[in-house]
Structure formats: C-alpha cells, structure tokens
Design a protein that fits this description.
With 80 residues, the chain is α+β, with helices and mostly antiparallel strands. It has one domain. It is built from 2 helices and 4 strands. The chain is globular and about 35 Å long.
C-alpha cells in the first residue's frame, strides 16, 4: 500500500525527461498493487481502461520516474 500511496502523492510531479516509449496495453501497471476495477481485456488479450479519458494522474504518468518503474519487463516505456 505504501508504493501506491507514494505514486499517488508524487503524481503531481513532472514526468522524467529521460522517459521514452508509449503504452503497449500490457495492463501490468493497472495491477499495482491491486487490480484496478476499471481494467478490462480485449479479445486479443490487450488491456484497456474503461475510464481512459478521465484516468487519475498516477495512471497517466506511470512510470513517472525510473525509481517507480515496476513493470519494465512488459511496459512499452523505458528510461534512457
């Protein structure tokens, strides 16, 4: 729970200038630390957000900083 609280509080900070890439709809960040109730899956297995256009800042900015990057193995973002 501490990790989610930290991500929520730090979501007002800017995204690192070193972040590159884009979301690949893996859905892993939507399960940190619990599965988001707005997470759905498409028939092809990719994930989608039912509230994408109004999603919270901590969702919009994930991964905001390399220290918060918990899904590097599946995420389309990376840090240079």
């Amino acid at each position: 729970m501490n990790a989610k609280a930290k991500r929520t509080i730090t979501s007002v900070l800017p995204v690192s200038e070193r972040r590159r890439g884009e979301c690949v709809n893996c859905g892993r960040c939507c399960k940190l630390p619990n599965v988001c109730p707005f997470l759905e899956y498409n028939p092809d297995g990719s994930s989608c957000c039912m509230i994408y256009s109004i999603r919270p800042l901590n969702c919009r900015k994930y991964p905001r900083a390399e220290s918060e990057f918990l899904t590097a193995d599946t995420c389309g973002f990376r840090f240079e």
